[in-house]
Amino acid sequence: MAKLKWGMIGGGEGSQIGPAHRLGAGLDGAFEFTAGALDHRADAGRAYGQRLGLATDRAYGDWREMLAGETARDDRVDLVTVATPNATHFEITKAFLEAGFHVLCEKPMTMTVEEGEEIVRLSETTGRICAVNYGYSGYSLVRHMKAMVARGDLGDIRLVKAEFAHGHHADAADADNPRVRWRYDPAQAGVSAQFADCGIHALHMASFVIGQEATRLSADTVSCISSRQLEDDAMVNLRFDGGAVGRLWTSSVALGRQHGLTLQVFGEKGGLRWAQEHPNQLYWMPLNGRLEVIERGAGGLSPEADRTSRVTVGHAEGMPLAFANIYADLAEAIRAGKEGRMMDPAADLYPRASDGLRSMAAVFAVAESGKAEGVWVDARPPMYR
């Protein structure tokens, strides 16, 4: 089977996220890294792309050059990943969708709700995929949690508790560190810092697993380091459209926490607990039963878990493998479209533009509620109300 052609914008030398995307896209041999505009400095981007193996004429100086170059080719890329600074996501994603490319955009998909609604409509009218990289939803046992909820193992979901709390911005002396400062500057980050950076991952994972969307929320936001204009800690109460209650905590000043992404789901017939720092174990407590540890890669799991388990049981699973599962979903979706067939249902789990839009609506809702001392507000984007 011929490889699909993949291109990347951003993710250049020294990037935090670029290597994870390149590892994930290349893992299964479904995608060939064919084109890239990897750096805002044209010469540096071209040189780095060529060192990674791109042909000279497909190592581009910027995204506009890449858009023009790939649009003109008969062997254009099948998928473009946008891994640039947040404020550029909308413009680049919009341009490539309009030109007929499938897109995987890093989160946040846009900076405003209105931009998010435009991307959703554009994806629908063009028939092009616009996926958003909520990459943690690619973990095998996260998908098994979703399968357990969907098949009724937990009964009706009563409560979901999500956390994404770390302590890596707890030092007030970092106030002038440019790698930290921009995150709390409204001119660069928008209306939210910690919730927009990490909280939306926790919210997406909660919605993904329980199959419900947030409708209302109440937020308590605070800048524990007083020099910051935007929040470094938030506690959010949520109500979901299927009746579940949500509790979400996100923080960047939680000293002693490292990555800190965890999810707990409590239903009428049992409860589940999973932590991203220990991704091989899922804890399952059935009502009136005994605590069970479900191991990734063990026999008897769901098709969704089996499809996304990459290494044998007992070996560590990592973030690039979760990213690889998103890319595998997208490869299946693109190939199914090319071949005019239905895609494998176990692969139909990649995050959509609608997820990116809902996240942005939640960001603005948290900012609004936090300023109003926790007043309950609508968490839905206008087009879904």
Automatic annotation (TrEMBL):
Record organism: Roseobacter insulae
Domain Gfo/Idh/MocA-like oxidoreductase N-terminal residues, every copy: 5-134
Protein's name according to its UniProt entry: Gfo/Idh/MocA family oxidoreductase
GO molecular function: nucleotide binding
A Pfam family recorded for this sequence: GFO_IDH_MocA
Domain of life: Bacteria
Residue ranges annotated for the GFO/IDH/MocA-like oxidoreductase domain, each copy included: 142-273
